[in-house]
Amino acid sequence: MRFDGQNPDEIALKLAHIAVEAGRVLRGMETAFLDQRVKDDGTPTTAADLAAEQLILKRLDEAWPGVPVVAEETCSASHIDQFFFLVDPLDGTGDFIRGTGEYSVNIALIQGKRPMAAVVAAPAMGSIWIAGATARTSPLPDGTAEFDWREAMVRPAPEKDLVALVSRRHGDSATEVCLSALSIGTRRMTSSALKFCLIASGEADVYVRCGPTMEWDTAAGDHILTCAGGSVVGPGGVHLTYGHEDRGYRNGPFAAIGDNALATRLDLPVSASAA
After folding, report:
1. Which of 18, 73, 209, 222 has the most CB atoms less than 10 A away?
2. CA-CA distance, 202 to 182, in Å (whole number)?
3. What does the pLDDT look like over 196-253, one tens digit per residue?
4. Distance of alpha carbon 7 from alpha carbon 26, whole angstroms
5. Helix/strand/coil for 128
């Protein structure tokens, strides 16, 4: 099925309903005893990851049958087409296990090499962000309540005392070198794709990641931030692209920024795996 002529905002809203449903599955499993295992890449996974992914795959196929899906847990090596979905059913599994609440459901529809519609839902934090042609955010509705959407918009970067979002467990020296070129006043620890969304909502300015990530980690947040007026760039200030099956859907270093003027002040290292 092709998406030509379909309204990206309507697609994003449909993805929002799917993400909310997956979020309810995750919330229902937060206090359950979950068998945990470590995958080959060293990251944890649980039955909750699998349950949420199975629901998302089912709902995507019902809405858009035949569109390929690249999802973290069960179809991370899928082949793609002109249109395909990138899915992380539980971004921040470690935080889910530890009960911090800082985890998200990420779904993005990719056209060619860039996203065209996306959702990031934070079930335990009660927030959701979507983007088609525009970026919006809402509290998560309770029961039969409706979304209460408002526009998500980045803020201009202050002259000094930038707010940088940093990962709780993924710091590295290359990231520190990049951040040292900026006038960072506050470092706020935040997990998962929420970092993109906080920048998109004007609550922070920059998130740099030089360590390994996958396309399903970033695509949804990338699109939301871009539609809110920011960008996600790699070395040389080039926007991230998606669908790199040849490198196993792995990203290179990137920076998520609210004010695009910050791009010229960053010197991201070039990753051989993403070249």
Report:
1. 222
2. 18
3. 999 999 999 999 998 889 999 999 999 999 999 999 999 988 999 999 999 999 999 9
4. 29
5. strand
Count the Cβ atoms, other than its own, within 10 Å of residue 169: 8
Model confidence pTM above 0.90: yes
3-state per-residue secondary structure call for 197-241: HHHHCCCCCEEEECCCCEHHHHHHHHHHHHHCCCEEECHHHCECC
Q: Please, where are the H alpha helices in the chain? A: 8-29, 47-63, 93-98, 173-180, 194-200, 215-227
Contact predicate 32/25, CB 8 Å: no
How does pLDDT run across 42-58, given as a tens digit for each residue? 566 788 889 999 999 99
In three-state secondary structure terms, 108 is strand
CA angle 152-156-160, nearest 5°?
135
Distance of CA 108 to the CA centre of its chain: 8
Tokens of residue 219, six digits: 């695509």
Smallest CA-to-CA distance from 217 within 69, 104, 83, 95 is with: 104
Q: Pick from 239, 227, 238, 237: which is nearest to 262 by CA?
A: 237
